[in-house]
C-alpha cells in the first residue's frame, strides 16, 4: 500500500487541517480577549495558536516525505483553492442562502466569492512571474518598497540589496496606488 493511500496519511491530513483550524480559531479568541482587555488570556491564546501552527507544519512535512512544497508549488495550490472557492463553494453558499431567504448572507457569500476571485488572480500572476523569473522586475519603472524597513526606490527592478537594512530582492514589493 502506498503511503498516500494509507489511513495513516489520511489521519495526518486530518490532523494537519484540524491544527490549522485550531490555530485560526485561537487567534480569533485572542483578538476577542484583547478587545475585552484580557491581555494575559490573549497572550496564552496566541502562544497556543502558534503551537498549533507548528503542529500543522510538522504534519505537512510528514505528508510530503519530510519536505515541503516550494513557493511556486504553494502559489499554484493556493490559486487552485481560491478558484474553487469563487467558482463553486461561495456560489453554492450564496444560492442556498438566497433560496432560504437569507439575502444579506447570500450577498456576503457573493462578496467573498469576489474576494477569492481576486486572490486567485493574484496567486496566478505571482506564480507566472516567478516562473518567468521576473517577480521583481517590470518593463516600465515602478516604485519598489522594502517590506522589512519601508525604504522605497524607483526603477525597473527591485534592488539586489536594500541600502538601508541589507535585505535582498525577495523583501521588495511593487507599490501600487493604495500603498
Note the main attributes of this structure.
3-stranded antiparallel beta sheet, mainly alpha
Structure, briefly:
The protein is mostly helical and 179 residues long. The longest helix has 29 residues.
Based on CA atoms alone, the radius of gyration comes out at 21 Å
Q: How many β-strand stretches? A: 3
How far is it from the N-terminal to the C-terminal residue, by CA? 52 Å
Strand content: 5-15%
The helix count comes to 4
Order of helices and strands: HHHHEEE
Biggest sheet, spatial arrangement of strands = 2-1-3
**Helix- and strand-based class?**
mainly alpha
What does this structure look like?
With 179 residues, this protein is mainly alpha-helical. It contains four helices and three strands, in the order ααααβββ. It has helices at 7-35, 39-63, 71-99, 103-131; strands at 137-146, 152-157, 172-174. It has a three-stranded antiparallel β-sheet with strand order 2-1-3, with no helix packed on it. β1 and β2 (152-157) form a beta hairpin. α1 (7-35) runs antiparallel to α2 (39-63) and α3 (71-99) runs antiparallel to α4. The longest helix has 29 residues, at 7-35. The mean pLDDT is 93.
List the helices and strands and how they pair.
Layout: H1 7-35, H2 39-63, H3 71-99, H4 103-131, E1 137-146, E2 152-157, E3 172-174
Antiparallel strand pairs: 1-2, 1-3
Amino acid at each position: 500500500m502506498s503511503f498516500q493511500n494509507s489511513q495513516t496519511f489520511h489521519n495526518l491530513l486530518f490532523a494537519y487541517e484540524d491544527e490549522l483550524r485550531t490555530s485560526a480559531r485561537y487567534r480569533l479568541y485572542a483578538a476577542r480577549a484583547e478587545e475585552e482587555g484580557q491581555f494575559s488570556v490573549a497572550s496564552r491564546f496566541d502562544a497556543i495558536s502558534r503551537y498549533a501552527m507548528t503542529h500543522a507544519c510538522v504534519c505537512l512535512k510528514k505528508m510530503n516525505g519530510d519536505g515541503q512544497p516550494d513557493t511556486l508549488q504553494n502559489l499554484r495550490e493556493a490559486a487552485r483553492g481560491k478558484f474553487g472557492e469563487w467558482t463553486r463553494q461561495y456560489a453554492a453558499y450564496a444560492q442556498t442562502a438566497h433560496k432560504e431567504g437569507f439575502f444579506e448572507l447570500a450577498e456576503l457569500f457573493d462578496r467573498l466569492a469576489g474576494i477569492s476571485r481576486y486572490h486567485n488572480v493574484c496567486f496566478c500572476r505571482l506564480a507566472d512571474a516567478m516562473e518567468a523569473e521576473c517577480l521583481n522586475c517590470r518593463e516600465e519603472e515602478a516604485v519598489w518598497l522594502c517590506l522589512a524597513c519601508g525604504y522605497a526606490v524607483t526603477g525597473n527592478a527591485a534592488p539586489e540589496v536594500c541600502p538601508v537594512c541589507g535585505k535582498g530582492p525577495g523583501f521588495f514589493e511593487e507599490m501600487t496606488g493604495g500603498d
